[in-house]
């Protein structure tokens, strides 16, 4: 295990995921990369015409300022996450696309030997209809996955 890819998102539990993944990588003397996926940035700034009587959108096409702002926020987030681990050797990467597919694609591209991610709590209906990113990755990956159990404090 020489390359540990740690997938994090904006959920506060990502701190635990990053820390546990980093500790494991240190024990393995492995290279670390923090990965954050922006799921189809174009959707963040899409402006739609009036539909179903709703006039909240005007014009067509993406608002490039919103999409760029989302990328800037992601960069700031990743810089903070790297700084939190206090290790200049940690790499970061921001990718765009469907979350599970994009994580798998980058893991392969980077040559990850281990993927670390958290298991968010989801409602039964959400799991039934949408599945989870972790489930989708486990179905498709050939790379070992280290799942960090994370639960909301309310659970």
UniProtKB/TrEMBL annotation:
Lineage: Bacteria, Pseudomonadati, Bacteroidota, Flavobacteriia, Flavobacteriales
UniProt subcellular location: Cytoplasm
Classification via Gene3D superfamilies: HUPs
Any Gene Ontology CC annotation: cytoplasm
Keywords: Cytoplasm
Species this chain originates from: Salinimicrobium profundisediminis
Similarity field: Belongs to the universal stress protein A family.
CDD domains: USP-like (cd00293)
Main location (coarse class): cytoplasm
Pfam families: Usp
Protein name per the record: Universal stress protein
Domain UspA: 1-149
SUPFAM superfamilies for this protein: Adenine nucleotide alpha hydrolases-like (SSF52402)
